Amino acid sequence: MDTVAVSEMVQDPWQQIADTRPFLHNHVRIFEHQYRHATWYVISNSLAASYFRCDEFSKLFLEQLNSVKTVGEAFDAARVQLPDLAPDTAEIIRLLAALREADMLAGLPEVEEQGAATSAGTAKKPSPWLQAMLRPLAVKIPLVDPDKWLGWLAPRSKAVFGVPAIALACVLAVWASLLAMSRWPELVVHFESRFMDWGNVLLLWFIYPLLKGAHELGHGLVARRWGAEVHEMGLMFLVLMPVPYVDASSSSTFANKYQRMAVAAAGIVVELLLSSIALIAWVWLEPGTLRDAMFNVAFIGGISTLLFNGNPLLRFDGYYVFCDAIEIPNLGTRSNQYLAYLFKRYAVGISGAKTPVSSRGERRWFISYGIAAFIYRLFISFTIALYIVGKFFIFGIVLTVWMLFLQFVMPLIKGLKKIAPEVAAQAKSTRMKAVCAGIAASVYLLFFVIPLPHSTHVAGVIELGDRAPVRSGADGFIAHIIAHDGQKVSEGDILLKLEEPGLQSRLQLAKARLYELKVRHQSLLVADLNAAAQVVDEIRGARAEYEDLERQSRSLEIKAQRDGWLSLGSAADLPGRFVKQGDLLGHVVDLRQVRVRVAVEQNDVDDVRRHTKRVEARLQSQPFKSVASNSVSEVPMATNALPSPLLGSKYGGRIPVDARDEQGLKAIYEVFQFDVELPALSQDAYLGKLAELRFVHTEQAVGIRLWRHLQLLLTRQLAG
């Protein structure tokens, strides 16, 4: 039998169902919603907790299906009333097939498909094991029906939803936020030193499910408060960790959007409240297991809200709150559909492509959200995968490859299969191939050909060159400051002058007595030689006293012992200050030999060591001025000892240190130290102790850099 004969035997899909008389099941309800001054309808299956959203024409068409009218008659009747909203028959076929698959429609036979046109509408749902394979980080296992005990608990928890309770929660959240900002360095130190300890990881395995259980309980209670039914509760294995979940999707039937938003936001509010209480407790508790547990609750509640549950870019609670807030239902799916429409309409040139835009202002949301959500999903997926690579190397590599397949390859295959019939029907195959080739070439150029700027940012501690001390040569009061702080001086220059009351008068008296003894000695040489000899001894004593006082007078002038820049510790407090002989007043520093010692972590050391073109430094005292350097030398051997505690997390630095080290010098991981020579600047430039350095590397394509980092990671794993 040839192909033509087979085609003639298979009727058009519409002809197969046009004379059938399907009808909606009794457990199906239709609810009206308002979005941006437009009316939409939610079709609910109360037995299976499945929901569909449709427009006014689809709702009118479905109401005609009463087992008396045929599909064709119902379609014609709806088209008479709403001619401008009538879709094509292919959309009606997909709608009916989806409702039949969801057990909402009876009396509709299987449609024998002629091609791929109706495959999307009649495709079977993937089996549970296949769904688990497609979502390896979130596998759901339903366990119980919590509707009865939630119905019993909801009336007894009304106080939780009252104004006083909400006000108290807001106060606690603000208090916790202020504490977090004021104690941020302590929080960082605790995280770096304690969070990934095996004991704390075990504690996390107990705390996380309990916290998520409270989160899901919030959803269920708020949903039941407004009459929604909650019939499914179970476990979701989120990144291999068992987490409770509650299916409160029945709240999507609420006509009031603020009620829907409240149900979706309930879990977020519960987590924020618990994390606020935990953070406040963490501040007041002594170190120990209970304090670690409070930190875990605060961290999980805050991070999960920011990155996952509360983030509208992922399809968790924040997404549904956001959709209702801007009144764009099904934002994620429709954004993808709109981007696909733009591709088909303008890139491939397919005429008649249908846009999902149904109201004013949706286009900009679809474009911005679709792109942002795609990028963020990739970021989260790869962050989780790379984290697992660091802990379980082989499993992490497999997971990363699988993520690439799910995020890139699989959507690409599905999209191409969906668009293929339209491309063939409109003879756009050549243009389609050209567009795909152009996209592939652009991706290749972007990732493997076009070099992009790349740099590493690290903090360093300033180490000044050779320094000569400036010390007081005598006791006295500082009378004059000749050279000012930061001034360049030469060896022998007078820096400060001291004043000792009575020293000059004693010097004059000693000088006069010495002169008197010399005159007396001259007169006695003629009259009495024995007496003259005795005067000689007195002259020696007087001369020694005079020379000592003269040295003291000269020591009141404090001079520079070398060329350099003067650094006075407290220049403003020096005038009139009494100092003792030997007191340190400052230094004369050789700024021609200033260097910055930096500690580079292992992930960045290869770039710093092999691919640095130049270094730019920003000093703490001059944060808006960049100082260039090309002189970089590596200190041999990796070490856990930091050159300064200011570089460690205990004192606000970036490198995590061991919390048990009181000095804050012991890094948790080995670091590599480098010395960067800086040019001579004024002393004012080096008043601060820290500098921010930017190692500018050789420009490379993103793909080459990623491949090189993967090689380094593999080398470290094999060496370990």
Number of domains: 5
Helix run count? 22
Please give the alpha-carbon distance between the first and last residues: 65 Å
From the alpha carbons, calculate the radius of gyration and give it in angstroms.
41 Å
Largest sheet: 8 strands, antiparallel
Question: Which percent range describes the beta-strand content?
Answer: 15-25%
Uncertain residue ranges:
1-10, 113-124
Count of extended strands: 24
Anisotropy-based shape: elongated
User: What is the arithmetic mean of pLDDT?
Assistant: 82
What multimeric state do the chains show? Answer: single chain
Question: How helical, in percent, are the residues?
Answer: 40-55%
Structural class determined from secondary elements: alpha+beta
Describe this structure as you would to a colleague.
It is a single chain. The protein has 720 residues and is α+β, with helices and mostly antiparallel strands. It contains 22 helices and 24 strands. β7 and β8 form a beta hairpin. The longest helix is centred in the middle third of the chain and has 33 residues, at 393-425. It is elongated and about 160 Å long. The two termini are 65 Å apart.
